[in-house]
From TrEMBL:
Annotated keywords: DNA-binding
A Gene Ontology molecular function term of the record: DNA binding
Lineage: Bacteria, Pseudomonadati, Pseudomonadota, Alphaproteobacteria, Hyphomicrobiales
Highest taxon above the source species: Bacteria
PANTHER family: HTH-TYPE TRANSCRIPTIONAL REGULATOR YWGB-RELATED (PTHR33221:SF15), WINGED HELIX-TURN-HELIX TRANSCRIPTIONAL REGULATOR, RRF2 FAMILY (PTHR33221)
A Pfam short name: Rrf2
PROSITE patterns: HTH_RRF2_2
InterPro entries: Tscrpt_reg_Rrf2, WH-like_DNA-bd_sf, WH_DNA-bd_sf
Protein name: DNA-binding transcriptional regulator, IscR family
GO CC entries: cytosol
């Protein structure tokens, strides 16, 4: 099963955007997360609708942040993405006739609910400002410069 990495990708581009004073094009952001600019535009349009980013058209245009990083959490961005499934695991059958499978499903459902609640709570505790602070510590540890085009290191 393919994992949904949109949240990770969006957080990635938002942090890159936070490091720039001007607009960043979809093409540049797409290179940062190794995807197509159309994918970036589609995702960013949803964030624009929620007021987290804005877009500027024409020469010198692109995407800019429209939010206070200290007031936006990873959960806010997760919600703006449409709250995709958090767990790749699920029950084998949703409405089983087998009593054994019913018992298994009941135990798994509770475990899945508990795990999702814990994860959502943690996402709600981490602001974009906290991610940015961690990024800045990493930039300093790697020589002190951040350039979107060449910041990706192994």
């Amino acid at each position: 099963m393919r994992r949904d990495s949109r949240l990770s990708g969006v957080l990635h581009v938002l942090l890159h955007m936070a490091e720039h004073s001007g607009p960043v094009t979809s093409e540049v952001l797409a290179k940062a997360i190794d995807t197509n600019p159309v994918v970036v535009r589609r995702i960013m349009a949803g964030l624009r609708d929620q007021g987290y980013v804005r877009s500027e058209k024409g020469h010198g245009g692109g995407w800019t942040l429209a939010c206070d990083l200290s007031k936006v959490t990873m959960r806010d961005i997760y919600t703006a993405l449409g709250s995709p499934a958090l767990l790749a695991m699920s029950n084998r059958a949703e409405t089983p006739g087998c009593l054994v499978e019913q018992a298994v499903n009941a135990a798994l459902n509770q475990a899945f609910e508990d795990a999702e609640a814990l994860l959502l709570a943690r996402l709600g505790q981490v602001t974009l400002a906290m991610l940015s602070a961690d990024l800045h510590e990493r930039i300093i540890a790697h020589g002190g410069s951040h350039h979107l085009e060449n910041v990706h290191v192994s």
